[in-house]
Protein 1
Amino acid sequence: MALVVVAAGGWFAYRTVLGADCSGRVPLNVAAAPEIAPVIEAAAAEWVEDGAAVDGTCVAVTVSGTDSVDVAAAVAGLHGISLAGVGRASGTAVMPDVWVPDSSTWLLRLSAAAPGFAPTNNAPVAHSPVVVAMPEPVATSFGWPDKQLTWADLLQQITTGTQLRTGIVEPTRDSAGLSLLLAVGAAASAAGEGAQQATTAALRALATGRSALRQDLVARFPRSADPASVASALGAAALSEEDVIAYNAARPPITLAALYPQPASMALDYPYAILPGTDPARAAAAEGLFSVLDTAAFRDRLGARGLRGPDGTWGQGFEAPRGAQAGLPSPPSAAPGTSASPDPGGSALPGAPARGPDPAAVERALSTWTAVTLPARMLAVIDVSGSMLQRVPTAGGATRMQVTLQAAQRGLGLFDDSWAVGLWTFSTELSGGRDYREEQPVGPLSSQRSRLLSSLNAITPKPDGDTGLYDTVLAAYESMQEGWEPGRVNSVVMLTDGRNDDDNGISQEKLLSDLQALVDPRRPIQVVIIGIGDGVSRDELDAITKVTGGGVFVTEDPAKIGDIFLQAIALRPAAPG
């Protein structure tokens, strides 16, 4: 816990010279987003020069400029969880005492996946709206600066226009990209019955212009005022206001306009998180440093770096882009993907502002994005045992089979033609002496989407059928291994409402032994198992995925299978190679 993650963005450090009024040394390690790290470092240096101490012990502060995704990966690894798109931390990455990511969404995603992750304080220390950055000639064609752009306007351009080249940084790894995802999703949801189609179209359009790194995205803006260069370059991207200010400060050939679509999207809020496990002396030092960041002098330092204070107003030296308004968006309506008040279920972080991102909306947006944009080869295996005929009170009396098939059909609608999908059903003795039956072989959706939909519509449970789970898992794994394809995520996704109760099938010991012999790290196949209702055995399912890789998702309320299905798809790791 004494070291700090050192990653992209450089590093800044300040160590105290012991003064006469304190003795000893309390080290405080701070990891902050690269754009705010120099501001915190300068404030910390002045604080230490003025005699920073905790109970008479001198404080030494080290500040590292660290990309938020890198600290998130380290935290996830420490807690044994994974976040969609984040990946693993480097072998040298360990925890700081204080983390100042660019957005509270990092804290919410981690705390939702790891209940033991409970940082304290969490109050914002800066603010930067997320804007749509456009080269000024492009922005002018949209009526800027006189016309106020809405997210509905932008959604229409993204999905039906041909002139606007849009870009996004991978939203599972970038907070501005996530903000755009939430805003576009909220605009698409207004399409009523066509909401899923509008969302899917928007995400697919954005995915064609995505970048893994922010600097790569920014490099695609026009580097010449030549009209042909402008037309062929990036025309719009989600960036922070600070990004636009920094870009224009370099005096590029064409400056960027910052457009603030309405309703306001989720901004970057730079929460001050004291991480769990920080010892009391360091935690006290962290609170001392926080008090220094809540001053007019710190606000002026932020302003000079293109950042606002946490209330949305700015200090001296801030060069506001045209159209910028001071302050935070006003109630009554919350910004897309946010909640106007703390979550009643207690998911809001202590110390966080009342208006903040809705954890459920964040999870849903990222899950949908991953399902839509990640090419894959998947075998869906659906339980058709007799228990799938049970009624689900929370789904209007529909059967478990009906809500499962509805979720599968919606999921199929999200996948584009680059996917390869197959369909099996299973119970006991479903096809002669076998517990499983191939309804459709794994094949490209470009040629068999309609056949898959027809097969789904024709599925009916076997009233007297039990759950031949073990035989089916082994057969599905072997089948996917035979057709394994590089460059894709190869996975088996099973949906079941019971535990193995096939007296004539293989034992659990035999299943695990055979799977262990089949697993090839060079040709990974992820097994994702979705448990529905209260009849599943989590331990039984976990034992399988511990061997194969993948994950288990269980919901006691079958009506929630749609969201669980998306989460399961989103947590697949990236394809090797």
Protein 2
Amino acid sequence: MMERIREGTNSLAVKIILSLIIFSFAFAGVGSYLAGGSNPPAATVGDKEISRAELDRAYQNERARMQQQAGEQFNQLLGNPEYVKRFRQNILDRMINDLLLEQAASELGLRVSDAQVKAAIRAMPQFRQGGQFNNDRYQAALRQTGMSADEFANYMRTDLMRQQLVNGLQGSGFVLPSELENLYRLEAQSRQVRTITLPVDDFAEQVSLTDDELEAYYQANRDDYIQPRMVKVAYVELTGEGLASDIQISDQDIEAYYQENQSQYGSQERRKVSHILIEGTGEEAKAKAEQVLERLNQGEAFTALAKEVSDDTFSAEQGGSLDWIEPDVMDPAFEKAAYALSEKGDISGLVQSDFGYHIIRLDDIDLADVTPLAEVKDDIRTELQQARAADRFYAQSTTLAEVAFEEANGLGPAAAAINSDVQYTDYFALDAATGLMARPQIQQALDSYDVRENGLNSELIELSGEHAIVVRLDDVKPEKQLSFAEVKDQVRETLAAEKGQEQAKQTAGDLIAQLEQTGELAGSDYTFSAPITLNRVSQQQAVAELAFSLPQPESDAASYGVTQNREGDVVVVALDKVIEPEVPDISPQSQMAARVQRAMSNMSLSATLQALREEVDVTYAESDNQ
């Protein structure tokens, strides 16, 4: 087989391919092919185990995928131990769900044929190029993941069998026309309301409070007036900004780089080849390969022979075609023989590799095309500047880390070592930090034992690719109870707001009582707004939610209720009318029908998983999942 032919496959294209398929592998237990050991499992599902190695691999794969998608934002989340714990738990739960579905599918007798597996692999977009299955991509991906073709096929078979069950559950749901009509009526219904807004601040301003009331409130709520531990932080920050601007690159440097890396500035010579593979390295395999070569020399068609005898089944179906190859991708012996052929249609002799004997045919040649130096000179200069700036940043960050560790009782020597300054923050509470000090990595460092208790410098904290920092606590103000005198104004404001809100609600209640009794607000200073029509989703969401919870008004009498808006003001709401929508003909193929059916299908799948969990003994063995 060809999955291990390539040696040293580290090209950008392969990395892109791997990034595309990594999520597909993440929850399928690929680690079970590679890991063993006697460690306790992460979870047990019936008589099957999910090993810690499987969970670790799935976690690392999903973490890599999220880092590629979300970048620095996701890295900041990883600084929160609680988030990491939930993230890992979600992955384990999904692995358990997959195993439950796999077991259920097996018990139902669901099966997947070899032809279905092969068709699914060929259809995967990660392995296609120009609309066709690309064997090079497939083989390179297998090699980089450390899987054999049989292992990947088994993984795909299990996944397809599990998907059969999921598709069956999701495909069994249906929606009746009457259900769609009723749902449309509910969703599209609107309500006409009028409102009176009672600003809490207006009531608060009228509240009169004595010192005794204020002190009594303070004594009853002393825990609300504790100043948290405050810290003042000293830090030395190192960034890569500006490091490249003063780096001089000579023309000789540029030309040398160009000569050493011409493959980056044009295409290498590519060759399109086909091959016939006879697996094995013994005399029997060699004799069989010699017989095939003799048949070719006698005039038999290469394509027909490849389909008949080649052990590389994927390329055999294409008449032995491996499509285009480039230098440093294939097995060295295979590549040397392929590039030794000079004319299209030339056929090699027997070529031995670790996987057997190959007979190679040259199908086409795409000659190298190198971009002139003058056209890429500026790009090379920028690239070299950035590379040397990165080296300079690495050297400075290494120096900063070493000196900060060796002179752990102050940041002065570390700052001087990189020709920088020590910077200082104002006092702040750790849980109320903003800006740079709010970064999770810095928060963790400031709360570490050596920094918090021993007053030492932190380790070097890498915030991003070229952004690092070392911090220490310059001063600490311990938590303290604030006196009544210190917070008297704050107490007054809080208590006035509470009493103002109470009075606003009381006034709202009085207004509603008057309205329900007389139907009007005679003698009141308050008047309703003009009628407005609200849908279920509105900018005035609190008013809308109340309006849709009030009973439908009878005849000319409105329904009334009280809520609070986003600003905290009290709002009296009068519901005057429920407006029913005209119901159109809703096709079972409409987007609405599809949305409702998806919701029902997801409910069915969730219910099935819950039932399976109740039937099968699921045990979490990880300490953080107890």
Protein 3
Amino acid sequence: MAVWQDNLKRLLNQKEVLIIHGNIRDTAYLTEEGNLVRGLTDLINRTGKELGYDKTVSWGSFFDHEGRGHSPIWSLERITPLNGDQPEIRKTESQDRVSDVLHRWLEDEITSIDEKKIFIINYIDKITGYAPDGMYSEPTAELVTLIQKIIENISENNRLIMIALRDTMIPVEYYTNSPRVAVMEIPLPDRAERHLYYSTTLASASIPSDQIDLLSNITEGLYMKDLENILSDVLEEIDENQEVSSSMLRKIVNRYRIGTEEDPWSRIPLTGPPKGLLDSAENWFLERVVGQDHAVREIVNAIKKARSGVVGLSSGGQSKPKATFFFAGPTGVGKTFLAKKLAEYLFDTEEAFLRFDMSEFKEEHTVSKLIGSPPGYVGYEQGGQLTNAIKNRPFSVILFDEIEKAHPKIMDIFLQILDDGRLTDSRGQTVFFTESVIIFTSNIGTRTVDSRGNTTSEQRKLDEIINDSDLSDSERERRVREHFTRSVREFFMHEISRRELLNRIGSHIIAFNYLKKSDYQVNIIENKLKDISENFRDKFAGRGHRLHLSGGLTGYFLEKYGDSISEFGGRGLVNALEDEIGNIVADQLLLAEERGMSDINFEVYVDGDVIRCRRS
């Protein structure tokens, strides 16, 4: 039996009043024998019978005496004898049905000691919703008072169960400083329940135990209704093909988890250029990302684990994100660029790259920007930026930039994502991160002031390593990586005291190198010049224009901006190239436009200590 069902039985023995919330709308619940009980009311009836109760009085369900839907729901109560006799339907004719039912319960029934009854109020949050300021309308205040009196006066032989979607949606007066009341959440089926369900229902289908284990692992976060649908699809696949593969199981589960059977991960080629994971992937990245060989190797190794399906083997959970990284290093060295290229490698487009600037989430209330505003607040209907983005594109590389600037409450969201691979937005809808890659970036290690406003020696220690002339280039790079890794660990362990988040990131703290080597700088300049040439061709192909960049430009920009690249990385170089080349090319383009000229060749070249542009 599930732990929560044991808790339900225990609390019904100990407390007169029980508030149940969470997974209350599931179609069925699993017993310890592997059987399904249809609906929460039937489960309560079953539990009540085991505990020796005589009847349940269920109010607020859609039914009539023939089992069909009936409106308004507050006019009917279903009285179910737990000895097997037929249920009785009691109807309230008054216009003020809710108040009349509660008055009758209070005055005539809940204090009775003749029988042991369980009174059930469904949708208590619809009868008396939570008021943030505690100010209720007069009719609602009367109902809140009536329910409080029921709680205070119910006899020890009777029980009251109030059912709501979320405990935060009902008045706190019901359970605050109330020793007779317990609040209990019904969770989604856990792994033990899922394994029991599938091992029982697939016992005669000749499915290997390892595939039942896989099915139990990858269905985390799903409702019993989803598990039933998945079972139906699995049995259908067996009927058609006499077997079911692990990849097919994943496709079937994804149909209900993220709404698609697509699996870009399975399309990553294992061998062959340009992207073969076993022999070409590193070169693919190194051709695009300059000077970060160590980071590229770490990325490729993580992709191999994700592609092979071994992520989560040690923890037993396979519903986590495919990979998690923490990119640490100075600004402008390619952290964001590598994340974009990872999205392109995995999903064939940089549009699968999502970036969130965490400097926009410094205040506690900004958590609503990620998961949506609570009910009743402005923007509730819009949802959250993060949850909406993952709903629309579950196969993504998600970058949380400058993570150290986020409010600590945001860290709780990251903990849930890294632990469970899912997140529930403010509207109660669950989104899954199981097919995504999570990347945090930070300049921790280069700061002079920490997140508390205290002076830190990070930059001074880094300068000592960089300026130590006795170190070889390889030793300097190694010590720089150690410095950034140590700084990140100290940030989580001591500065914000979030060791649990550091544990989820694990060994995937990737430190980026400074771009001091001249060959790194040459490659960066050449790549940027190539980008300019290609982008010019794409933009002005309709006019027949072409842009030629002479070979001397690399040396010109290396001499002029080499020191800047060493200190600030390649980001400033992009602006410098656009300014210098863009300014002189713009003049020639405008002159050509003014004279109605097309099919022009623009050549940018070095003339002494300046660059010029001529057209031909």
